[in-house]
Design goal:
By secondary structure, the protein is of the alpha+beta class. It has 4 helices and 10 strands; from the N terminus they run βαββββββββααβα. It is globular, with a radius of gyration of 17 Å.
Length: about 200
């Protein structure tokens, strides 16, 4: 199964917005029936704090949700190292993860500020993906419509386009959080002087 991770092109604007986690998961379940909205009571073994990643190859973005309910959002490319472009606090309420920037950086990222945490099974393990309610949701709908037309004879291939977002690649413990924050902010500081 393929998952499209964070595919938002410059100049593209979302046409759709999920108004609730229920609306978003109904759409995803049309193609990915085992996907469910993450709930701490059901999936305590998979906690929300962690490093989430989208992209591969020449560029990508990382979202770090720390256990103290702060976050940092970074991006990277083949031309520069990972750099913090936003930070602030995060909360979860009514199955939605909301990011609130402290506005210490002027950045368009992350484009989505509200995410639905989705659990689905990949290779007999629970995989956690944060799917944004505007950019990720809209991109999934638009790319899936096109893909479904083009690959109508391969439903398994089409199914992989239903979850678009940032995938959790590693948990972050309270013990490692402060060291990681310092390391990320040092990269920002150094990057201003490397230009």
């Amino acid at each position: 199964m393929a998952i499209i991770l964070g595919g938002c092109a410059t100049g593209w604007n979302p046409k759709y917005e999920a108004k609730s986690s229920a609306e978003l998961i109904r759409y995803v379940n049309r193609y990915e029936p085992d996907a469910k909205v993450w709930k701490a009571i059901l999936y305590g073994d998979v906690s929300l704090p962690g490093r989430y990643s989208s992209g591969a190859g020449l560029s990508g973005r990382e979202l770090y949700l720390f256990p103290d309910n702060t976050y940092m959002f970074t991006d990277w490319s083949d031309m520069r190292e990972e750099t913090v472009c936003d930070r602030g606090s995060w909360t979860i309420s009514f199955d939605l993860v909301a990011l609130s920037s402290d506005k210490s950086f002027s950045s368009i990222y992350p484009r989505d500020k509200i995410y639905v945490p989705i659990i689905h099974t990949v290779s007999n393990r629970n995989d956690l993906v944060l799917m944004g309610t505007r950019w990720d949701y809209s991109f999934a709908i638009e790319s899936l419509t096109e893909t479904a037309r083009e690959y109508s004879d391969d439903p398994d291939f089409v199914k992989g386009f239903s979850i678009n977002g940032i995938r959790r690649v590693a948990p972050i413990s309270s013990d490692e959080a402060e060291k990681l924050k310092v390391k990320l902010l040092k990269r920002v500081w150094e990057s201003h002087f490397d230009d």
